[in-house]
Amino acid sequence: MAHTHDNPLHVHSLSGFSPVGWPTFEATLWALGPIYLYSLVKTAATARARDLGGHRRWSVFHTMVAYVISLERLSLVLSYVAGWVLALWPKDEVHRYLGIEDTLEAKAEAERDVFALANVTAFSMVVCWALYEWGSAGYLKGFVNSFAVPIDVHSKEE
């Protein structure tokens, strides 16, 4: 089965089960492509300019963008595990709980929903990775530090 939707701008929601929708697999790949190519060009440009600090930043970012596909595969494996766990319950209860009809078309749509969700999950993992990596390197001083309130454990309140 090809995991794509007739409408690439369709918003998945697992038959209305999820209150938050997510884009199709194809739309997320189209969003990823320009970012991947831009980071590749910037990585090469900073290397040619011998800007080692800039090259490190761009090469780390390019690696993160490239890892989206690997993390998407990890998300798929985790969704398979969730599917195996759901298979332990009676089929009628699972279909009723998730709001999926017992038709081939409804099952295919639910499968496309989960496949698209795997990409969004992978993007979320990369964003968390980027915040961690760049926050610890000091690249996001004003952004990341605004979320954390430093606590001085050595000060004594009077």
Structural summary, described in words:
The chain is mainly alpha-helical and 158 residues long. The chain has one domain. The protein contains five helices and two strands, in the order ββααααα. Helix 1 runs parallel beside helix 4 and helix 2 packs antiparallel against helix 4. The mean pLDDT is 79. Keywords: Membrane, Transmembrane, Transmembrane helix.
Q: Which key phrases capture this entry?
A:
158 residues, two-stranded antiparallel sheet, 5 helices, 2 strands, 66% helix
User: What does the oligomeric state look like here?
Assistant: single chain
Broad structural category: mainly alpha
Low-confidence runs of at least 5 consecutive residues:
none
Strand order of the largest sheet: 1-2
Estimated share of beta-strand residues: under 5%
Order of helices and strands: EEHHHHH
N-to-C terminal Cα separation, in Å?
Answer: 68 Å
What share of residues is helical? 55-70%
Main β sheet profile: 2 strands, antiparallel
Mean pLDDT comes to: 79
Number of domains: 1
Spatial extent as radius of gyration: 21 Å
Q: What's the overall geometry?
A: elongated
Number of helices: 5
Strand tally is: 2
Topology (SSEs and partners):
Layout: E1 11-12, E2 22-23, H1 25-48, H2 52-86, H3 91-98, H4 104-137, H5 141-144
Antiparallel strand pairs: 1-2
